[in-house]
Description:
Layout: H1 9-13, H2 26-31, H3 33-41, H4 54-66, H5 72-80, H6 83-88, H7 99-115, H8 121-125, H9 130-141, H10 151-165, H11 171-181, H12 191-200, H13 202-217, H14 220-230, H15 232-245, H16 255-272, H17 275-288, H18 290-295, H19 298-301, H20 307-320, H21 334-355, H22 360-364, H23 367-370, H24 373-380, H25 385-394, H26 411-422, H27 428-433, H28 441-444, H29 473-503, E1 505-507, E2 513-515, E3 522-533, E4 546-553, H30 558-565, E5 572-578, H31 594-598, E6 600-611, E7 633-640, H32 642-655, E8 666-669, H33 677-689, H34 696-703, E9 722-724, H35 732-738, E10 743-746, E11 758-761, H36 770-778, H37 782-785, E12 787-792, H38 815-825, E13 828-833, H39 840-854, E14 860-864, H40 867-877, E15 887-889, H41 905-930, H42 940-962, H43 972-977, H44 998-1027, H45 1031-1042, E16 1045-1049, H46 1050-1063, E17 1069-1072, H47 1080-1084, E18 1101-1106, H48 1118-1122, H49 1130-1137, E19 1142-1143, E20 1146-1147, H50 1152-1155, E21 1166-1167, H51 1169-1173, H52 1175-1178, E22 1188-1192, H53 1212-1228, E23 1235-1239, H54 1242-1255, E24 1267-1270, E25 1279-1285, H55 1298-1305, ...
Parallel strand pairs: 10-12, 13-18, 13-19, 14-16, 14-17, 15-16, 17-18, 20-21, 22-26, 23-24, 23-25, 25-26
Antiparallel strand pairs: 1-2, 3-4, 3-8, 4-7, 5-6, 5-8, 6-7, 9-11, 11-12, 27-28
Helix pairs in contact: 4-7, 5-7, 7-10, 10-16, 15-17, 16-20, 24-26, 25-26, 29-33, 33-46, 38-39, 39-40, 41-44, 41-45, 42-44, 53-54, 53-58
Amino acid sequence: xxxxxxxxxxxxxxxxxxxxxxAPTVSQINAEYVTxxxxxxxxxxxxxxxAFDPKVIEDVYIKEIVESxxxxxxxxxxxxxxxxxxxxxxxxxxxxxxxxYLMSICCMVNEKxxxxxxxxxxxxxxxxxxxxxxxxxxxxxLVENDSEYxxxxxxxxxxxxxxxxxxLEVDLIRGQVQQLISLPMWMxxxxxxxxxxxxxxPKLRKFWNLIKKNDEKMDEETRMQAYQERRFxxxxxxxxxxxxxxxxxxxxxxxxxVHYCERFIELMLDLEALLPTRRxxxxxxxxxxxxxxxxxxxxxxxxxxxxxFCQLLDMLKFYTGFEINxxxxxxxxxxxxTTIHYDRITSLQRAAFAHFPExxxxxxxxxAAVDTRDALVKIFEPLSSSVLxxxxxxxxxxxxxxxxxxxxxQKDFLLELLVSRHERRISQIQQLNQMPLYPTEKIIWDExxxxxxxxxxxxxxxxxKLNLQFLTLHDYLLRNFNLFRLESTYEIRQxxxxxxxxxxxxxSEYGGVVFGGWARxxxxxxxxxxxxxxxxxxxxxxxxxxxxxxxxxxxxxDNIKDEWEGLRKHDVCFLVTVRPTQPYGTKFDRRRPFVxxxxxxxxxxxxxxxxxxxxxxxxxxxxxxxxxxxxDCRTYRVFLDPNQYQQDMTNTIQNGAEDVYETFNIIMRxxxxxxxxxxxxxxxxxxxxTDCVVPDWLHDIILGYGDPSSAHYSKxxxxxxxxxxxxxxxxxxxLKASFPEYKxxxxxxxxxxxxxxxxxxxxIKGGKGKKRKEADRNGExxxxxxxxxxxxxxIPNRGPYPYNQPKRNTIPFTHTQxxxxxxxxxxxxTMVVGPPGTGKTDVxxxxxxxxxHNFPEQRTLIVTHSxxxxxxxxxxxxxxxxxxxxxxxxxxxxxxxxxxxxxSRYGRVNYVLARRLELLQEVGRLQESLGVPxxxxxxxxxxxxxxxxxxMSRWEEYISKVKVKGGKFPDATDVSSxxxxxxxxxxxxxxxxxxxxxxxxxxxAEGCFRHLKKIFTQLEEFRAFELLRSGLxxxxxxxxxxxxxxxxxxxxxxxxxHDLVELGFKYDxxxxxxxxxxxxxxxxxxxLLQNPQDGFSRLKRWIMIGDHHQLPPVIKNMAFQKYxxxxxxxxxxxxxxxxxxxxxxxxxxxxxSLCNLYNWRYKNLGNLPHVQxxxxxRTANAGFLYDFQLINVEDFNGVGESEPNPYFYQNLGExxxxxxxxxxxxxxxxxxxxxxxxxxxxGQKHLIRDVINQRCGNNPLIGRPNKVTTVDRFQGQQxxxxxxxxxxxxxxxxxRDVRRLVVAMSRARLGLYIFARVSLFQNCFELTPAFSQLxxxxxxxxxxxxxxxxxxxxxxxxxxxxxxxIKNMPQMANFVYNMYMHIIQSxxxxxxxxxxxxxxxxxxxxxxxxxxxxxDEVQVMQENAEEEEKRVAGEMxxxxxxxxxxxxxxxxMPEHPGRDSDSGDSEPENESEK
Length: 1474
């Protein structure tokens, strides 16, 4: 967000309320010194620029950046003006390099990262001076003297370095950073420590000797330069320690020092959390004892200023001791960690035994007796500092002391060093298992962990980051676990603040609490009692479960009472204690801290077990209706979190704190859709406790290491040579066109037989190993390597009925789509990038169908982000040749499926039962036709016997009579005359047998028998449903055995993992749609919905289809989204790591001219032929001169954007203009449902809906558009005509995210009309490729009002009608008003009025639009009106007369409509909320 909300640097550390940074307006931008300079030197639109002058850079840096104390607003302006791209880097060279130059570049790069826009592109274009520049940065970072570089400037440099270390996928950066973090950096270790480390791994000694040899060959200068780089990080650590020591325990403190320390720890954390940087650095960090210095520092003891520092430090300590082998990168097991711990203690004991007689007792004790912190302190405290130093130097921790020398270290440092190194650590998994899953008040309102919505991207936070790589799977899951937990905590905080403030808790006269308000989602608690604390499980110290009863009084409206009574098992609620201090009637101020005002003391989570009946029993959920309970009192049995309960009770007993569980006075529930966080967290925690087996071929890729293409099908050892492409190809020519680089060899020469379906045999390059190398040496035939063997085959006849014919694919896939389908059929990881309109869903469905036919015994899991995408997939799967008994859909979305069939579990069970009856009826008919007595069609079992003894015997007898004997073909008539089932097939199209040839008739007879056999095969499968009686058992059987294609959303997978694994759910292939919109962790969980077989995963294929150039997953909190990069999907991360993708490259949705607005973002995205050929794409948009236009909208009555609430941006001028254009289109005859109105902010969406309601919503001549919504919400949908309002006039806002621009530009098929402040958007660097095309056309709307829809004029032709140019919104509104009046007058109709257009107001102060009263009456029309117009009038009368404008003064347009009908319950939209 360009105008992101900012927390000033000091606010992040102190408790001042967060401030919002106001974005500069266009007029302010133009008045700024920076802008004036830009217009002379580097602005992109200036034709004649002045020559480069280094003095400009000095001036800008001193005046604009340093003097404003690095104000974000100033840096934002500079960065936005393209200072970095067009001036700084373009002109950088060693000759002009200066401090101001370096600092300016660093500030710009840091700003780009803060804004989340690509930062390194400029450097890649001109890389030659980057090494020099980087070396200058390293030198500047180590400057001791504050007068050269202030601490604030050095903090900027640290942040720049941090960004470099986090961009290792950029070759340019990696080349520079590599030298700082490779093995030679061990030069900085103490000699004894170095010796100890080289001893551990003999291989390293060889490398070390090599390094030494190479160093000797270097000349002096190069060697010194190399030494400087290798020692850089350890020198930086020493510099940091000196800054840290300069902070005193009390008294005034320089916040610059605090921020420097925080950023430094963040840099250390990021180096420790990535394997490539950690590998050698961790030893150097350990050798510097940084963590010990930090824990003992004065800053850590200062409660207020050191709070964030301590949180970051805890994270650093966690990562320094992470359970991983630094050199190999393998995760360490619990046993290995214990061994390391024991080795450390025993080596300490050996040293004590040999050299320190005063430590004899310690040396002879067993490990468990001496490895706690208390025991170690007790043993080492009595020793003098020189003895402690000697002990440490024996362990190679410190340099050795000479005889008489005293230790230069403080005693508390030496003690802490020995104790922290040898104390027993609780394992990571134990810590996790003891962690409560519900957030409490301590976390919910801690700004460093859960920042407010006002996070600007400035200060650093104590949050994990999701980057390219992770240390181990445990680390991967843990970071995601923490972030997921905190993101849900942020939403919980918003809900609690909303509900509790609505309750208005006040202090009553008697000192209790009185509630002055009410809330739908919260109720006062009447009584709360803990009813059960179960014994702990063996080996645990927390209770197995804790249950309590909560009683509330539901004296509320019936619909709300129903909601409370409808609380289901596993729903999460929150118990809150408030002790207000404010007297009755005090107003709540949203701007002041919430906790102080409401007097909130405690928050605890709980999970509903059920409601109790009158007898105190839990009402079980079931199909039967719930009993009606009398009165308003309701009691719920709830589960409390046992870990939390244990912590609270320990605190009460040991510290005499009050019992939290006797104080609750409010219970709060949440919307079920947003309330599944606990189930997902439990799922992640369970995954961490199991040996989660990711397939070997995926393990390294998921962590981000190794060869990113190692899981591509071409490198998989189990590649499949021959695949049946079934109905993928429409003809042999289509097949040849699909493999342009291969030679095609068809097994049959007769062109008449070269018809699909085809089996294709691919040339497979062997796996790795000796044989492969030998084959290479002997030289494989290059011809063979490029030849495909194609074998057409005939699908066996399935029976004589028309419905026996298989359904066929009709889509002529392009060759890239075919490559995606081929990759999806082969084992391995397939990633398909599908730009808008390129047929992603068609490819997905064809892959599913081909897998189903090629591997009938395998099962495929389909996962999507939304229910809507699942519906689209299912509707297309239905059209292919897939037996619907093998389809199953899990989750709540199945109700919305727009087919008449129900694919949910119970829907499928009912289908199977109904199908069973149909088939048994068929068996009855067959029995009758054969004249067999008895009741064989009673059950599946009897039908099976009937098939074996009656049907098979007749068929075998028949075959023996008509088979070819001794090479002699029987007569063709015999096939028909001897056929035993004529009577049964009497209802098929006759004659069944053609009588032309023996082969043809025999195939028909076989087909008839296949039809019969299929009936009995299905009945055999359905037999289980006769044995299983309950619906639940039947649905489980269906899931585990019968279904072959199972679909669910990623949320459902995360919620139900435990149940699925317990059922023994199994699958072989996963296909994910919309995978660039799914959170990293929600993409990962579906890989593990089954237990491993013999320690291996049976997963064979993982197909991900998505588009990382469109919008990412929705993260509501800015800090998690930007700082922690939580919005990065796994799909996007794989693309960044370099996993090969198949990029679909032909779109069939939009006109070619519209496609050009976004195709620059993709690798060669072209158009399918029909986009140029079909009449709808060739004809012009009636009434418009252009098929797309950017229309400039200036201030209306002196107002551009307004912001009634934070982030609730509106622009009345644009809203009125958009609606006027919509009305114009409807009056020309455009169908209203073919038009959608989109905008980039929620506030504008509500405003446009209000304007539509007032102007035309209930008018049958105009109506409402298909949708009025935000761009974010409309992702994945499309319409013929899109009207887009960009709202902002002061700063570009979040449209700067190119992904949002791509979505906005790619929703329209035939026409796109964009309303915006052009002067603002055309200067934005990221948006240039689209806006340069938009601004090439006139910026005033060009319309042709006399041209009706549809028109015969071709697109691009000059119209024969007159063109009107509309200059501004009031002109358009008046035009539409007059046009409407004219249409009404020319129809035979009653007096009829439309709300008059908004008029310009004389006084610019009032932002409201004034609407004048309609005075002129509408005359009744002449007799000879045209027939067509009579019809229109007639229809309008039928539909209900248009409302005559009210006589009283019409209301003025509200500035901020607040809640309209849509917004009350609608869940908030994506980031547009912000």
